[in-house]
Amino acid sequence: AAVPAWRAARAPESDRRSGFVEFAVYASQALPGVLVGFGILMCLRALALQVGGPDLYHGLRQSGLLVVLGLGLRFFGQVYGGLKDAVLRLDRRQEEAARSLGAGRVRLARSAGGPSPAPGRGAAVLLSGLGILKELPITLMLVPAETSPLSYRLYGRYNEGDFLAAGLVGLLMAALALGLSALARSLEARRLS
Fold it and tell me: Model-level pTM?
């Protein structure tokens, strides 16, 4: 997400490609999880049956790669949005000064462009991570058999009427969110001092 966000933030207003990339990123995020999961399954099934047969299909279903692909498609827009906003807030004068002093691309990214968008990167990772924790449709459709991820346990306990267990899982998710937020704040405070 970093490369498209950087390119879109640095592209001139008249560049149509950056507008198309941004539209494609947000369009993928707007799709419901059920459609993303079902689309991945149908594409995989058609491809696997053409190339390797049912064994390839079932092997890929059990690998866990489909969950990563599905959640990546679903939450790419959140990461992209946080990174693009962070890149737009960069002061271009820092980059120009580093270039005038002879900094190459790697050094420029490490010294001028790398540390400044760190809070935006942290926010993007936190938002997408929390979304992934509670995403149920993609997880249910694409998770390997005989596994029970956190979102499945949370919604399963709620549906069974076991509100104490559902509350504990929800409390675990809230504690995880607070812990990650505190970690991001402490890293930012350490970076600024």
Answer: 0.67
Task: Measure CA 85 to chain center.
Answer: 15
Task: Give me 15's structure tokens.
Answer: 């560049």
What are the Cα distances from residue 150, in Å, to 13, 123, 179?
A: 42, 22, 17
pLDDT digits (tens, 9 = 90+) for 6-26: 666 666 666 667 677 778 778
pLDDT in tens, 141-154: 777 777 777 677 77
> How far is 61 from 116, CA to CA, in rounded Å?
40
Are the beta carbons of 28 and 4 closer than 8 angstroms?
no
Residue 61 CB partners (closer than 8 Å, separation 6+): 44, 142, 144, 145
The token pair at 162 is: 């076991």
Q: For residue 89, what is the DSSP state?
A: T
Residue 117, φ and ψ in degrees, nearest 5: -85, 15
Above 80 in pLDDT, residue 136?
A: no
